[in-house]
Specification:
The chain has about 200 residues and is an alpha+beta fold. The protein has two helices and six strands, in the order H-E-E-E-E-E-E-H.
Length: about 200
């Protein structure tokens, strides 16, 4: 709006700041998002490490001997080595015989020795403990997700604040226009409560 009549222009409130200040605010918001992501990833890493440590204390790697050749492939995912099952026997605890079906490579012959994981009772555990790269990937993914969520929340907060500031600015402009418009057009000011016909 032209400010030639001496009327002050409405302030932008939160957004009446210079570009360098706005750039610093954006950088600060990005740093906050990254810090939140790092904290989220770190918390998940520590939790997973404690869980894996507790699980590892009750997992034991032993050698089993297959009692028959590997059967038909039970499950194979794209890009992975085919895995099948074979009957096997092992001992855990010491001198306590156990037997069952274990996962082996396709084509494993009878009498082959295979490393397996068992729990404290000697029961076969099909899944091996998660590796460090798996934990790193999961923690990084969660950290990136947390950073993204915080970043989106910050963007939403800024957009909401801008919308409210724009609403206040439009109300202020409307009030100022009601004062300036009669001076510019030469009309008499409207009386409150009277409608234009």
């Amino acid at each position: 709006m032209d400010n030639s009549e001496g009327y002050p222009a409405p302030a932008d409130g939160l957004f009446a700041v210079s570009k360098p200040v706005r750039r610093l605010a954006v950088i600060f918001a990005a740093v906050i998002a990254l810090v939140c992501g790092a904290i989220g990833g770190g918390v998940l890493w520590n939790t997973a490490a404690r869980t894996d440590g507790a699980t590892a204390a009750h997992r034991h790697r032993i050698i089993a001997t297959t009692t028959d050749r590997a059967g038909i492939i039970a499950a194979a995912r794209y890009g992975t080595t085919p895995v099948s099952t074979a009957p096997a026997s092992w001992q855990y605890p010491a001198h306590v015989p156990r037997s069952g079906s274990i996962r082996v490579q396709a084509g494993t012959p009878k009498g082959d020795e295979v490393a397996i994981w068992v729990n404290d009772a000697g029961t076969y555990q099909a899944q091996s403990p998660p590796s460090v790269p798996q934990r790193v990937f999961t923690s990084t993914a969660v950290g990136a997700g947390a950073a993204g969520v915080v970043g989106l929340a910050e963007v939403a907060a800024v957009l909401l604040a801008r919308r409210r500031a724009m609403g206040r600015r439009l109300v202020a402009w409307e009030r100022e226009w009601e004062e300036v418009e009669p001076v510019w057009t030469g009309r008499l000011p409207r009386e409150p409560g009277h409608d234009d016909d």
